[in-house]
Batch of 2 targets.
Target 1
Amino acid sequence: MMGGYGDVQLLRDDGLRLDGRKIDEMRPVSIEAGVLPAADGSAMVTHGLNVAVAAVYGPMEAHPRKIQRQDRAVIDVRYNMAPFSTSDRIRPGFNRRSREISKVTAEALESVVLVERYPRSKIRVEIEILAAEAGTRCVGITAAAVALADAGIPMRDLIVGVASGKVEDTVVLDLDKAEDNYGQADLPVGILPNTGEIAFLQMDGDLSPDEFNLAMEYNFKAAKEIHEIMVDALRRRYEGGEV
Amino acid sequence: MPELVPALLRQELARLADEDKRLDGRGRWDGREVSLEVDCLYNAEGSAKVIIGGTVVYAGVKFELRTPWPDRPTQGSLMCGAELRPVAGRKYEPGPPSPESIELGRVVDRGIRESGCINMDSLCIVPGEKVWGIMIDIHVLSDQGNIFDACGLAAIAALRTAMVPAERFDVGEDHRLEVNGTPIMASFTRVGGRYVLDASEEEELGGDERIHITLGDEGHLHSLQKGLKGVFTPAEFAEIFEVAQQRCVELRKLVAEKEGN
């Protein structure tokens, strides 16, 4: 059982969270598409204090050859945290955590991109976390989805990264850093907002079936809100003007 | 193909150079628009974002407590590194640090270090026991030419706006890092046979050697680097050195403006 940090109070006496949010309220999100001129598609997502940038290159020839698939494109994702993105500096380079996140993110994106349109090719998705304050894998997924759309790559739907969790036996939406560190559960998912399907799922901690259902309900609610911001960012990009 | 395109591009660049023109219509010593933002990342003790044309670079400053070297018991340390990750462009591949990224980080590092803008003795907390180590990490997100100047500018702007996180390490109160000077880099690339300031991606692709000059507040030289294949004459250097002086004054002014905000 997690949550052995009884001395850390995460919910205030008035029922609000430490940063003043309601239990089903997400942190502010803003998105900009087309931020990296060198890339075929790109996006920057600011989610609370998190900042993630995604760049998309391709479709291009798949290298090395052994990764080629005869019937579809492969999506090559690299999730990376900048050395200055966390409180303690991170040594540059891949680690086990970023490898795992890259793998499951790639599989989630392959589930929404129409990969069968580009046999034997590769689509590179680079996710760079510039500031990390809990929930970066979800912010990275959201950024990657907008960057893919910005690159003009056909997709069945967008995919939105969101997370809910549990603190002090209460299910809350969108954990911040303290809640992530001292909370009891974390449930990050990647939701297809139009079809209602789920393409990314991880969880750790302790949730009862009822708590799980409530956390998913919160996630779907937040996905809808973020989806609107994603679409708005893409619309501004296509119109090419300020809103 | 990879050889053919630059060959055609080289011809075109040479033709334009004869008419004293550049691909994007700039004058020989004109830089692209530069935008600088400081203090833009929550977890970095100092941060800066630089956009030069289509080149986008971030720099972040972190501090650590370390034991000083035995022969320099009162001196802290400064380290500056650059990462050229695959995010930066189609040509970049994953893998261990490339010679290019190591050169980039080291040239920026030398300019800052040799200008003396950081007094290493001011980083001492307990002589022989505890000193600050400063780490500047530069992250190139989009390379559309002249990443050196963008990295140099981002690094010094992040450093000059950094807060020393003493409270988090339980060694006193947080305070602004003392930085005495603003070393600035100006880079020149030989394109169509003559040097130009702030080369674009196409100019670099169809160009030759490059020269990086880092100047301090008084116009003194603090770091020089010639990169890639090619030679130059003292007269050519004298010419770009004059331009570098002006360019550095302009960019230094930009850093001062952003610091004031």
Target 2
Amino acid sequence: MLDNLQLLFVYAPVMNVQMILDGIFIGAVFALAAYGLALVWGVMNVKNLAQGDFVIMGGYVAFTAHNIGIHPVLALPIIAIVMFLYGLVVYQLVIKRVIDNDMFVSLLATFGLSLFMQQVMNLIYGPEVQTVDSHMYIMTMFDDFVTVPTVKIVSLGLAAFFATVIVIFMTRSRMGQAIRATAQDARAARVLGIDTNKVYMFTFGLNSAICGIAGVLVSMIWVLQPFYGIVYALRTFAIVTAAGLGNLPGVITMSFILGWVEQYAGIVAGAEYQIAAAVFVLIGVLSWRQVQMRRQRQVVR
Amino acid sequence: MNEKLIYIGLAAFGILGPIAFPDYIIQFAVLWIMVIMASTWDITGGQMGYNSLGNIAFFGVGMYISACIQVSMFYDLGDFTASYGAIKPVFTDLQYYTGLGLGIVFAGVGCSLFSLLLGLAVFGLRGPYFAIGTLGVAVAAREIAGTIDVIGAGAGIAMPFLPLPIEYRSAFFYVLCFILAVFAHLVIRWLFKTQFGLAANAIRDDEDKAEAMGIPTLRYKQVGWAIAAFFMGCAGAVFGNMVGYIEPLEVAFPVATFGIFMVAMSLLGGKGTLWGPVLGAIFFHVVKEATWTYLLGLQWVVLGLILILNIVYFQQGIMGWLQAKYPERFGIAVDESTSASKEGV
């Protein structure tokens, strides 16, 4: 471990640039998925443990499109629509019935959903690790010390673009306003004539579409595997618990922090700690919030 | 009267079942382990409303504690694991049985202590945060166990061999599992006849009010979790010896399988009841083995579907459904005037 630290800060400080860049690229994808989770959590109080599997599913839709011969970036709108429709179906069959229930029920129901989606993807695409080749140029900096694939920059740009679109949608459009009203007070929204059921349905579809977009980015810059979903779900939970609901700047900041923590944990402590890092961040955040709440004689709920 | 019949039936099933179907004896043993898991999950999960997704951590910790005790009482643990099973230590009968007995007891006690410590850290969380936090603890325990070299890291530990002829091996562990399940059941049954049961249900219904009534809620939660942890640790120790090989991902900390199964079993049977988890475990195990046998390849898909269907459409579970259907058989008095107003809630 000490050797790795020495390597990082004494022999090759340029590597830090690589890791900070990678942290930003990976964090942008986390931010999209985490914003979707925060949306669903905040609006209808459903904790979607299948979030990661929606991401991976989006990736596999992109993989299918790639196999047909469509470039994933061009297929993005189609994939978003496909995932949106899938989200509506899932809402009608499962989520609709767990909204009014005890919060733990939503956690377990979506866990069942996650298991189901993993296995169906496993049956269709097999357990092998898959990638989508985006045929883009790889740039290097600092005498080949730092590699920056163009596709990562493109995906960062796409993530930023979609985040902006979503924010504008949420603040300007009628549906976005209805969603925010429902999140504030569902009963009052109902009294004022908002069809909350429709709002819930749309929100879940929107979340699914956002995850699908994140999945396309994952498919281009990392790898797809049917069982990687749960890791993304844990990461999004860590981010959202740390940042709080409805706090977009917080979500984005926390996503980048988690991205950097994972990069550094992977280098300093070993590759097997890269995934554990997300879990440790989650536990750390929960403990910290408990300590804070205990000062005011309250609990984290 | 009614309950006596159930006990006689279950005892007959537990004793005659493996005699009648000797090929399935390990399956019966796993069934009792699952009964223990579901029943102990229900102490905090169903009765107290603290839905832990991380109870499986105690299972794995107990397994590792018993393995360490069994080996290190007579051999050097580091050498043993570093050889990856190349050293085949010979245990005398006495050594093996004392090791096993002490291993099981210390696994239980160690897990109880571990749960007390952990409880201080997680009982400030409520609802979904508690579930997510404990899930995180279980995953973290798995990752940490995979990096400690002295307990074999990712490669695992081979357990000592039972010094009995091989044909008695499964019967021996079956008896251990059965006794442990009966013991756990009786303890839980006694526990919820005492004041503990009332306090636990008060915590589930409204913790703030329970605290205002002077119930030391944290202590009750810790005691409940410690008892659950004790039996999970013992079950882990027995299971580890039964499997014969411990490895962090699939055997010791199966977070995504047994860790979730125990919750699913409790919900399926009806959480917050004494018999619900037992019924749920039996039903779940039968369905699981049937799908594994007849729908191989689709088994996980079917399992995910069962979980969704159970939670979305059949939340009250078998016992809850029975209690709603025949309340008089369970000694529940239904007040029509209040039950009618419940529809509107």
